[in-house]
Structures are given as C-alpha cells and as structure tokens.
Write a structure and sequence with these properties.
The chain is 43% helix and 17% strand. By secondary structure, the chain is α/β, with parallel strands linked by helices. The chain has 2 domains: 9-78, Winged helix-like DNA-binding domain superfamily/Winged helix DNA-binding domain (Arc Repressor Mutant, subunit A), CATH 1.10.10; 85-197, 3-Layer(aba) Sandwich (Rossmann fold).
C-alpha cells in the first residue's frame, strides 16, 4: 500500500477485510451502503469503520452513505490490487507446505513464487508447482524470482538469522509465523502471527466471558 500519511496498524489490517466485503456487496448488485450495513456484515462497530475511513478523506456522504463502486475502486488502488506481489516462503514444514498448497488462491495479486527449505536439494525441487531450493541459495533465487517480501515458517532458532539475511538483501517485509520477536531495520515492515498466543487469548476470552 502506498501511503504518505501514518495509518494505525489496526486500521491497516482491516483494509483488506473492507475490500473483501465491498466486493461482496458489489457482486450482490448493491449501489450504495451505509456504515451500519457494513458494520452488521463485518461485525465491526460503525464508529470504528467511520474512523478508519476518515484517514483517507471523504469516502462517503452524510445522509447517502458510501458508493459501492467508488469504494471498490478506492480499496483496489489503495491495496495495489492491479500489481502482483511476489512472495518467498522460507521453511517448508507442515505450515509451510499448507501455505504453498493454498498460495493465496483468493488474492489474485499475491503469489508465493519461490520457497526455501533446509531439506531441499541444491538443484531444487517442485512442491505444489512452486520451486523449492536450499537456503544456501536464498540470496540468488530470491532476486531471480523477483520476491518482494518473505513468509517465515522456520524454527525459532533460525528466525533471526533469516531475518538478518533478508534485511541485507533489502527485502521489503516479513510475515513472521515463528514465536521469535524479530529485530529488523526501520525501513522493513514486520508482522508477527503467533498462533499459540492467539489461541491462548481466545481461550482466556472463552473462559472469562460473561454468562
């Protein structure tokens, strides 16, 4: 996403969700929607939606709501839906293999184009139609396949080392699936998804919800 203003990370994470639901409204033939309708569909309060949208100026009109086609075009441009982002996957274990098989099928602008795994032969192999190479070839193949960012599903002990190598290669960002808290240069974007932490948070909410 190409933005000059500082958008909160929580808002940034919701932008792809807004785009997905706006696409659904467009496919249903709706011409305009209100923040209340979007709120009910997404299960996000309307005040949050209006606040998120306010970062981008006047996306709607008071008393009218939001023009669906206008929002569709806006989020498509904001999320660079017309530009393909090439991704490298590092670590082809159980989770990595699942990601290779899935390969963002619903996101036509995002594709894993190359993967790396310590068990791969030096000359590479194919998994789910994606070339997989040994990490010794990371610098060479990352550039050769034009990857912009990387997904890390390696062991925790290898995560920072891989992050350092990616930083040295001027990778734009990392989606980190390891529990390690990585250190990267300020110019790089880093998002960490710790499944065990998310699960523990869910368990806490379930056990402490009001009856």
């Amino acid at each position: 996403m190409k933005q000059e203003l500082k958008i909160p990370q929580a808002t940034t994470k919701r932008l792809p969700l807004y785009y997905r639901f706006i696409q659904n409204f467009a496919q249903e033939g709706m011409e305009r929607i209100s923040s209340k309708e979007l709120s009910e569909a997404m299960k996000i309060d309307s005040a949050t939606i209006r606040r998120d949208f306010s970062y981008f100026g006047a996306l709607g009109k008071k008393g009218y709501g939001y023009d669906v086609q206008h929002l569709l075009q806006f989020f498509s441009q904001t999320l660079d839906q017309h530009e393909t982002t090439k991704v490298a996957l590092i670590g082809v274990g159980n989770l990595g293999s699942a990601l290779l098989k899935y390969n963002f099928q619903k996101n036509h602008n995002t594709h894993i184009v190359v993967a790396f795994d310590s068990k791969a032969p030096k000359d590479g192999k194919m998994i789910s139609n994606i070339p997989v190479f040994h990490p010794d070839l990371l610098e060479e193949k990352y550039a050769e396949y034009g990857a912009e960012l990387a997904i890390l599903t390696v062991s925790p002990r290898s995560a920072q080392k891989m992050a350092d190598r990616l930083a040295a290669m001027n990778a734009k960002g990392i989606l980190n699936f390891t529990p390690e808290r990585l250190t990267v240069p300020d110019r790089m974007q880093l998002l960490t998804i710790d499944l065990s932490v998310e699960l523990q948070a869910l368990i806490y909410l379930i056990r402490n919800q009001e009856v």
